[in-house]
Amino acid sequence: MARKAGSSGAKTYEAIRAAGLALIHRHGYEGMSLRQLAAEVGLQQGSLYNHIKTKQDLLMELLRGHMQDLLRALDAALSGTEEPLARLRAFIAFHLHYHMTRQAEVFVINFELRSLEPGNYAEIIALRQRYEKCLADILSLGMQLKLIRQTDVQITTYALLAMLTGICTWYRPDGRLNEKQLIDLHTELTLRGLAIDKD
Amino acid sequence: MARKAGSSGAKTYEAIRAAGLALIHRHGYEGMSLRQLAAEVGLQQGSLYNHIKTKQDLLMELLRGHMQDLLRALDAALSGTEEPLARLRAFIAFHLHYHMTRQAEVFVINFELRSLEPGNYAEIIALRQRYEKCLADILSLGMQLKLIRQTDVQITTYALLAMLTGICTWYRPDGRLNEKQLIDLHTELTLRGLAIDKD
Amino acid sequence: MARKAGSSGAKTYEAIRAAGLALIHRHGYEGMSLRQLAAEVGLQQGSLYNHIKTKQDLLMELLRGHMQDLLRALDAALSGTEEPLARLRAFIAFHLHYHMTRQAEVFVINFELRSLEPGNYAEIIALRQRYEKCLADILSLGMQLKLIRQTDVQITTYALLAMLTGICTWYRPDGRLNEKQLIDLHTELTLRGLAIDKD
Amino acid sequence: MARKAGSSGAKTYEAIRAAGLALIHRHGYEGMSLRQLAAEVGLQQGSLYNHIKTKQDLLMELLRGHMQDLLRALDAALSGTEEPLARLRAFIAFHLHYHMTRQAEVFVINFELRSLEPGNYAEIIALRQRYEKCLADILSLGMQLKLIRQTDVQITTYALLAMLTGICTWYRPDGRLNEKQLIDLHTELTLRGLAIDKD
DNA sequence: CATGAATGAGCCTTCATTCAT
DNA sequence: CATGAATGAAGGCTCATTCAT
User: CB-based contact (8 Å) between C165 and chain D?
Assistant: First the structure.
């Protein structure tokens, strides 16, 4: 349901996406009603359907859009860095930054996959696997080059992603530690855990 | 009809809890209907209310029961071990074992806190904090004794718990790696990340 | 469902009647649930059915019992008085006294006739007509003897009964006027309205 | 389907009010179900909620509307009449006429106050007191001017209102006596009961 | 007699969705 | 495009009643 930019409806559609994201974040997909959403945007219930196809479709658009953004941004963040440990550092910094600045999106994608219909679920999972594969590839290459300890790539990928993603459940911009401190802490924890001592 | 021969209150209640847990795991709390639940247990909808007070109350009983089990089991698992690194190893092994064997419960507690009413939420969060504090105390003592690198205890606790808990989203008993292998992998990753090199 | 006096169940039955009357007075027949009633009496829901046949039957027993008491008491109150104006005074005094002392019963009979099933309704209405006829007969005889103004007996009966019955909606034993004062006021109002001036 | 051709919101709302009034009159508020009401109006149950907020709200709208009509109509009926006995006659005629022509409304307001939630109850009672005060003021002034016997104003007000209101429980337009005859009968009964003999 | 567990119908209300206007 | 009124299914929960224990 992407809208033509510039039309007056595009603004409404963006408002629906924004409010929908916030409401799903707050109440969950099942817990959000289209009544609420319409009220938030200042429309009648029926008018939503001039902008979205169904409730499920709205969720799907949000998740797909998010995953595409995420993958694009990851590519940009890693481009130009080739050395595996440097790429690992870059990945950690990118993931944490993204999860701190787009908390609602990442929260929803972690908690609402369950609400997707099978076909939609498969599509999003495929995108997520592309993301996971990027980290797995870094680890694989690092192990080949003896920069990273030999271990199970798949499980380690899951472990790292779980650790780095957890931040979206508790991070507050006005918290005790700032973004850089958090990135440093996680980077050190990860690299000490994985890198091979040089000397 | 009055009562099915052979049924007994306590057995029915256990059946409701078990089916409720499974359905919440599968569809989420908001996504599970009491109609489904009743059907699963082989009752009329209204009969559920001979055993539970409300739907919310069922969720709460499940979560409270789970947290109490978890805390009791943790105490048992750590008792007798004093040295911080040994306690850390024991904690990791316990947490992973528990999260592999009681996947539904831990999944629900991680994904459905949002569905608790404020009072219930506070109660469960308090129990969870007792659990987190146990890990935080291990880290604190380890740092004091110079066995663990100096770092932020709170954030490190969150990071480790997120990593170790992630397993409940993907672990399958018939997976490629067995329980011991998974525990070893996470233990090594964690201890290399945190422990101070001796020598 | 009258019970044998003296049995231990008789006490329970009386407790059910009393609590039932109070609850119907407070919430109405439709508004009272047998759950509430059982709780009030200290029984489980199912146990009520050892004492009453159905909810409707309980209402009916209450109303029938009340109407029989009322008719018996009226007979007693009027017996020995023959002169029509004296009988009218006696009727007024009796009716008011009864409606002040058994407010719940009279309230229920005035507000819950509607909740009776057709057969029961007819039975109670028949009893009530016997009561109304008593007043109508007094008025008729008074008119024949030229003690009471010529007017429509039926309508006047309704008007007087409505007026005298109204007291059950607002009377409080600790109110500003006592029973005698209220009886005097209504008696004077009625007799001036009806009696023929002598002289 | 979306909307039945020809239906309009205001008309549907009026149909709901009318059917609601009739059903509450017949079965009581607790005894009327919204299923019945919807069927009576030719809607699905849920569609009622495009027009009313809740069942309680429907009752409240009916009662409030009725009380406002009643007060407005009373003002109109008494305006221009100053002399207390004439005002009393006008009050009686107005009250009876209104209670004969809007039987359902007045029946409901007399029998369903009990079903109002506390806040709503207070609001309606306040309106009713304005109505009662109008009669009480007539009586007070009449006593001051020695046109009406000295007696308790409050209780007499209650007594008269109860008597005059009773008509809504039995009046039928095709009954033995017509409206004028009934008004005359009640007027004479009341005035003889209250007025001071002149000569 | 009392209990507790069951029934099946019914309660008020909300849901996502449709569509004539 | 927006609205308001409709749909039909489903939501959680309560009801009076029954009956094996």
Answer: yes
Asked if A158 lies within 8 A of B152 by C-beta distance, the reply is no
Closest CA to D36 of D26, D103, D106: D26
Residues with Cβ < 8 Å from B31, sequence gap 6 or more? A30, A114, A115
A38 CA to E16 C1' in angstroms comes to 13
What is the CATH number for A21? 1.10.10.60
Q: Do A166 and B163 make contact, defined as CB atoms within 8 angstroms?
A: yes
Domain count, chain A: 2
Domain presence at residue B1: no
- Which residue in C has a C-alpha nearest to residue D189's C-alpha? C193
Is C40 a member of any domain? yes
Q: What percent of chain A has pLDDT over 90?
A: 91
| Cβ–Cβ gap C158/D170 under 8 Å | yes
Question: Does one domain contain both B160 and B179?
Answer: yes
Å between CA of C65 and C1' of E11: 32
Q: State which residues form the domain around A27.
A: 1-52
Contact list in A for residue B188 (CB cut-off 8 A) is: 151, 193
DSSP secondary structure, B72-136, as one string? HHHHHHHTT--SHHHHHHHHHHHHHHHHHHSHHHHHHHHHSGGGS-HHHHHHHHHHHHHHHHHHH
What is the rounded CA–CA span in Å between residue B98 and residue B68? 13
Question: Rounded to 5, what percent of chain A is helix, strand, coil?
Answer: 75, 0, 25
Q: From first to last of its 199 residues, what are the pLDDT tens digits of chain D?
A: 455 555 677 899 999 999 999 999 999 999 999 999 999 999 999 999 999 999 999 999 999 999 999 999 999 999 999 999 999 999 999 999 999 999 999 999 999 999 999 999 999 999 999 999 999 999 999 999 999 999 999 999 999 999 999 999 999 999 999 999 999 999 999 999 999 876 5
Q: Tell me if C199 is assigned to some domain.
A: no
DSSP assignment of B19-66 equals HHHHHHHHH-TTT--HHHHHHHHT--GGGGGGT-S-HHHHHHHHHHHH
Task: Identify residue C65 by its one-letter amino acid code.
Answer: G
Task: Identify residue A192 by its one-letter amino acid code.
Answer: R
Q: Is C4 exposed, middle or buried (0-12, 13-18, 19+ CB in 10 A)?
A: exposed
pLDDT in tens, A60-75: 999 999 999 999 999 9
Q: Which residues contact A4 (CB under 8 A, 6 or more apart)?
A: A10
Token pair listed for C29: 């027949």
Asked if the C-beta of D198 comes within 8 angstroms of chain C's C-beta atoms, the answer is no
Q: Tell whether the torsion through CA atoms of A144, A147, A151 and A153 is positive or negative.
A: negative
Cα C94 to chain centroid, rounded: 11
How do residues C131-166 score in pLDDT, each as one tens digit? 999 999 999 999 999 999 999 999 999 999 999 999
* pLDDT digits 0-9 by tens, C9-53: 788 999 999 999 999 999 999 999 999 999 999 999 999 999 999
What letter represents residue C125's amino acid? I
